Structures
1.
Amino acid sequence: METVNAVEAINASNSSGGTGGDVSTDEEDEDFLRDTDQYFEDEDTEDVDDWMSLDAARRLLGLIYYEPNEVFEEFALQADSQGLLSRESFEQCFFSLMTRTNHLTTATDQNRAHHIIDMLYDAFDTDQNDVIDFSELTAGLSILCGGTSGMRTSAAFALYDLNNDGFISFPEFQSYLLSVFKVMYRVQPSTQSMVGVSVEELAAVTARDAFEEADLNHDHRLSYSEFKSWYESANGSGVGMSPPLYCHCWTTTAVKWPTR
Ligand SMILES: [Ca+2]
Ligand SMILES: [Ca+2]
């Protein structure tokens, strides 16, 4: 049976679209609007595929300037008592984070950032009822955040361990990867066509292989120690972290699946 290597596809996708080389002109700098409605003035006249990439998303959203926990705290503040976020509160979180870093200096960048925020919300609001789950969302967003590797290890474990019992079960592991891949598919538009499988299939296959490898004592759950070893090894260090390492994770675990 023929197989396709997801990593080669993703890496090719990264190198073709990952420079974030979108340049804005000085004229566009004139109106830097701080009011949230005007800040996100939407003018979707350009082709998203021309500028969208994982690097562009990280730069435009500015989450790279924050540790994962700082980002999660911001979203937790906006979430309701059931851990749900409306589209409006989701947007407010980004507006709050972005005005602190003040990294968007052109109208073009502001519009692009707004477009990404809208797309991300759509990716998680699968039943389109304008409500998304906070924990699922933040797991996905973790791949866009900054921070040191130590901080990321503990943040990642907390994100995987959804029921907070101190272990990561396979369903928790798979749920985390699904969130991460939802973000990947959106901010790297060529991913799905190059990989050739749905985000659910990718999460299922990747989770199975990675979980087997990490579960050293084969008790079907990951302790913090097992998780830490895996996450900080060459195989695991990419998940939820920088894009090159993330892709390296797939290379070394040799994720493969049948072609259609
Ligand atoms: Ca758990
Ligand atoms: Ca185990």
2.
Amino acid sequence: MSAEHHGGGDVSLTLFSMPAVTEVNPPLTTPRLRLEPQVAAHAPVMVAALADPRSYLYIPGNPPSDAKALQRRFAHQESRRSPDGAELWLNWVVYCGEDALGTIQATVRLAARTADVAYVFGPAAWGKGYAAEAVRAMLSFLRDGLRVEGFAANIDTRNAASRRLIERLGFMQTDLIVGADHFKGSSSDEYVYKLSASAFSASPPIPPLDFPPAGL
Ligand SMILES: CC(C)(COP(=O)(O)OP(=O)(O)OC[C@H]1O[C@@H](n2cnc3c(N)ncnc32)[C@H](O)[C@@H]1OP(=O)(O)O)[C@@H](O)C(=O)NCCC(=O)NCCS
């Protein structure tokens, strides 16, 4: 059943039927960024944007080298659903002007109304708050557009930038998984981070004051 059968517009009402791809993975914008739903045609720009091995230090996998293979993978992902239909697999390509900076992803478990989030940016884009801005927009959409109730992220304990980013968004560490994965010759431990959708604040949090404030 499409959204129109439910009176149109509210994707959350039709989450368990089959809303259109454009409704579950729409274009999003932020003050500085444009988040395009990832499609096969993005493969060449993503091969370039994600070419630096530093983007893969704390995650399995390596820079994509074969645009054709990436194009096939992206085409396969355009269904936005797991083969069993239990999950939405949502992917956006993040642009600043004409520059593709990276990708952000959400795996939405429909029955639980929870989403795992992930992101990879090229080093040229790091340290400018782009990742936080893009992920914040995605969380807002997941909460307000799809009525997701809880977010989670698993992060390698060595990945200081990713931990800082997710903590800035309000996630709290809830677990430590020792030996969570094994890649690039070593075993990795992961922190599990969680954030309830009701606790998520879409506006940037106020940075903590140095205490005592300078000048007092
Ligand atoms: C994780 C990643 C997206 C963060 O990107 P970013 O551009 O640094 O993110 P932002 O600029 O939005 O902010 C990240 C925060 O971490 C801080 N940070 C950045 N690099 C850091 C580092 N090496 N150590 C500690 N903190 C760091 C930033 O100062 C910022 O904190 P602030 O808000 O207090 O200023 C980026 O490092 C990346 O793509 N890494 C490779 C892929 C990856 O590991 N993905 C995550 C898998 S779980």
